[in-house]
């Protein structure tokens, strides 16, 4: 009986020891995985990739600065995280007290980058499992400017640009791309990478330019003006019409023989100036042909002269309406 009891007790003791050992191993496994300091980083990155801004903000325990919040959710947020690849979350490094730093290495557009997350121990669950949380912080911002426009596109989302500028609160890490694709004006895309809360991001400056549609529209109106002007000068038989071009001569020109033609139309250049869009001075060439009489000899000779001319215009754009008004000085 005593030997049987000893054997039974030994069996129970061995089982208990194995159970305790198994529990210790399980606790360590949990603390090194789902209860590790790396897990909040994994959850935060997943929230960014899904465009879940509210969840990401809660995990990061971050304050939103006084800035536009258009990049903090949905498509804009997903786009910022979509370019993050080859992620490697490193081991936690002690930072004094109950804090640790968790490094994350990754690539964006082929560049290898690193972001450091500061976390702190906030107690335990079920007595054994550690709880880790991000140390509270404030989100970084990205500044965007655009020449002569009150709107732009940032990470595929239309955004307001009052006075041609705005500041956006952003999550990190991520990449932000600004562009402008309007009917008459556009700007090539420009990108900035935000690698951390304390790493300033380069400002995104959009250099707006007139696109081909606007240049062609203005060129068409300028051509129409010059052709009409030349035709009226021929109809009125004038050497000095109300046009950018004219001809002066001491000879008498035979009435009915005057003909004006535009031989070179101006090239159109539209540039920003003082918050507006202006057309650069327009330079072209016009030819006059006629018969002229020398007042001294009475000889009749052909007149065939090409003149350079230059003038300016006022450009007005209201919605889809383009107005080009020639400005002539006499």
Provide the fold topology.
Elements: H1 2-31, H2 38-50, H3 53-60, E1 62-63, H4 74-82, E2 84-89, E3 93-94, E4 99-108, E5 111-125, E6 129-134, E7 137-138, E8 141-146, E9 151-154, E10 157-160, E11 165-169, E12 174-181, E13 185-194, E14 204-206, E15 209-210, H5 212-236, E16 252-253, E17 259-264, E18 270-273, E19 276-279, E20 282-293, E21 300-318, E22 321-327
Parallel strand pairs: 1-7, 8-14
Antiparallel strand pairs: 2-4, 3-4, 4-5, 5-6, 8-11, 9-10, 9-12, 12-13, 13-15, 16-20, 17-20, 18-19, 20-21, 21-22
The counted number of beta strands is 22
CATH structural architecture of the largest domain: Roll
User: How do the SSEs run, as a string of H and E?
Assistant: HHHEHEEEEEEEEEEEEEEHEEEEEEE
- Terminal-residue CA separation: 131 Å
Regions with pLDDT < 50 over 5+ consecutive residues? 19-33
Radius of gyration: 38 Å
Q: Helix proportion of residues, in percent? A: 25-40%
CATH class label of the largest domain = Alpha Beta
């Amino acid at each position: 009986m005593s030997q049987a009891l000893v054997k039974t007790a030994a069996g129970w003791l061995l089982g208990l020891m194995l159970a305790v050992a198994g529990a210790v191993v399980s606790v360590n496994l949990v603390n090194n995985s789902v209860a590790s300091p790396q897990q909040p980083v994994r959850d935060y990155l997943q929230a960014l990739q899904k465009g879940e801004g509210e969840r990401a903000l809660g995990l990061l325990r971050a304050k939103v600065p006084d800035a536009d919040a258009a990049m903090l959710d949905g498509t804009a947020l997903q786009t910022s995280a979509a370019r993050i690849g080859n992620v490697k979350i490193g081991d936690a490094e002690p930072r004094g007290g109950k804090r640790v730093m968790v490094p994350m290495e990754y690539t964006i557009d082929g560049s290898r980058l690193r972001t450091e997350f500061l976390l702190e121990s906030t107690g335990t669950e079920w007595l054994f499992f550690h709880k880790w949380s991000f140390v509270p912080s404030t989100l970084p911002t990205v500044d965007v400017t655009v020449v002569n426009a009150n709107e732009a596109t940032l990470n595929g989302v239309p955004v307001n640009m009052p006075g041609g500028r705005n500041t956006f609160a952003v999550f990190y890490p991520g990449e932000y791309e600004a562009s402008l694709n309007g009917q008459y004006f556009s700007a090539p895309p420009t990108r900035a990478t935000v690698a951390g809360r304390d790493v300033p991001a380069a400002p995104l400056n959009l250099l707006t330019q007139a696109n081909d549609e606007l240049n062609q529209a203005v060129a068409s109106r300028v051509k129409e003006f010059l052709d009409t002007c030349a035709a009226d000068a021929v109809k009125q038989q004038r050497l000095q019409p109300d046009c950018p071009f004219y001809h002066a001569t001491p000879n008498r020109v035979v009435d009915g023989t005057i003909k004006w033609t535009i031989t070179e139309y101006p090239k159109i250049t539209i540039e920003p100036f003082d918050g507006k869009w202006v057309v650069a001075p327009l330079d072209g060439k016009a030819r006059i042909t006629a018969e002229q009489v020398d007042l001294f000899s009475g000889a009749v000779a052909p007149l065939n002269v090409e003149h350079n001319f230059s003038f300016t215009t006022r450009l007005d754009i209201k919605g889809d309406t383009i107005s080009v008004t020639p400005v002539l000085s006499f």
